[in-house]
Design a protein that fits this description.
Elements: H1 5-36, H2 39-61, H3 64-69, H4 75-107, H5 112-120, H6 131-139, H7 143-166, H8 176-180, H9 182-192, H10 206-237, H11 240-273, H12 279-306, H13 308-316, H14 325-334, H15 336-352, H16 355-376, H17 381-413
Helix pairs in contact: 1-7, 1-11, 2-4, 2-5, 2-10, 2-11, 4-5, 6-9, 7-9, 10-11, 10-16, 11-12, 11-14, 11-15, 12-14, 12-15, 13-14, 14-17, 15-17, 16-17
Amino acid sequence: MRFEIPTLAISTLWVGGSQLAMRLGRILTTIVVARMIAPELLGVVAIALAANELAHVIAKNATNGRIIRADDDELSDICNTAYYVNWLVGIALFFLQVVIGWGLSLVYSNPTLLHLVAVLSFSYLLLPIAQVHSAVNLRNEKIGLISKTEIQQTFLDSALTVLMVFAGFGVWSLVLPKLLVVPLWIKAHLDASHWKTPKKITLYKLNEHWVFNSRVMGVELLGVVRQNIDYILIGYFLGMQALGIYYFAFNAGLGITRGFILSLNNAFYPHLCAVKSDHLKLHSGFVKGLRYMLLLLVPVLGLQAIFANQYVPILYGEQWNEFDAAQLVALLCLTGFPLLIMEATTQYLRAQGRSGNDLWWHTIFTLFFTLAILIGVNFDLLGVTLSVLIVQFIAALVRLLHITKSSNNTFNNKVIEPAGGIRNE
C-alpha cells in the first residue's frame, strides 16, 4: 500500500463530516449546560472527567498500537494476546479509578467526586468486549464506520445530557451519558469486524507487545496529564468557580476542534504504517500530511478565535461576559495548532517504531507544561491560558525541528531499520 494524499483526503472527509455533525451536537449541549449549570458544578464535573480520562487512555492504548502496526502473518496471534491483556487492564482500571475517586473526594472535600468517578469506572468492564475489534477496524482503515459510530455516540450523549439537565439531574447529566453510550460503540465494532474471540489463552510475543504498548501508553498518559493538569491545578489553587469558567472556555473553544484533531491523526497513523519500511516515503508522507491537515485547520481555528467575542455571549449567555470567558476561548482556540503538530509527530515516530523516543519527548514537555501552569496560577485564569499557549507553541516548534533534523541524518547515513523492528531510543 502506498501513502497517497487522496487516500488521506477520503479519510479526512469522513473525519471532517463526522466532526461537523458532532460539533453541532456538542454546541447544543454546551449551550444548555452553560445556561443551566453553575460554574462551581462544572468544576466538579471537570475533575471527575479528568480522572476518567487518565484511566481511559490506558484502556484505549493497552493493545491498539501494536495491532495496527503488526505484520499480516502475526496479526492473529497478536490479537489473541491483546484480547486477554485488555481484560486484565480493564479489571485493574475499574478498581484503580474507584481508589482515585476516593482520593479526589478527600483532596477537594467533595464526596460527590467519589460517586461520579466510581460510576464512570464501570465502562472499563465493558470496553474489553470490543477493544480488539475496534483496533482491527482501525487497522483496516474503516474510517467510515468509526466516524459513523462517533456521530451516533455523540448525538446520543448530547441528547441524554440535555434531557437530564432539563429533568434536574445536575452534574449527573454530564457523567451518566458517558457510560450509557458504551454499548452502542461495542455493537458497532463487533458487527463490523470478522475477528473472533479466541477460545484459549495465548501470550504471543508478550514482552515485545508490552515494550511497544507501554511506551505508547506512556505517551498517551502524558498527553492526558497535560490535557487535565490545568483542571486539577486550577481547581486546587483558584477554586471550583474558576475551574468551571476555564472548563467552559476550553469546551467552547478547543474542546470541539480537539476531537477533529485527534480523529484526523488517528486516520493519519494507518497511512504512515503502510509505508513504515521505506524512510523516504514515510517522511514525505508525514510532511505532506501535516501540511494538508494544517491547511484544513487554519481557517477553522482562526475564525473561532477572531469572532469569540461575538459568538460566546450570543450562544452561551451574557453571564459569561463578567468572567471574560470570550478572551479565554479565543486563546484556547489557538492551542489547536501546536496540538496538531505534536500529535502528528507522535504518529510519525510511532509508525517508525520509535515510541521510546516519543515517550522521552513527552516526558520533558509535560514537566515544562506543568511548570508553566504553576507559574500561571499565581496570576489568574488569563495567566494560566497564556502560559499554556506559549509553552505549547515553543514545544511544537522544537519538536518539529528535531524530527526534521533526525530524519535528514537518517537519510544521509542511509540507516535502514528492519520492517516491523522496534528501536530502543
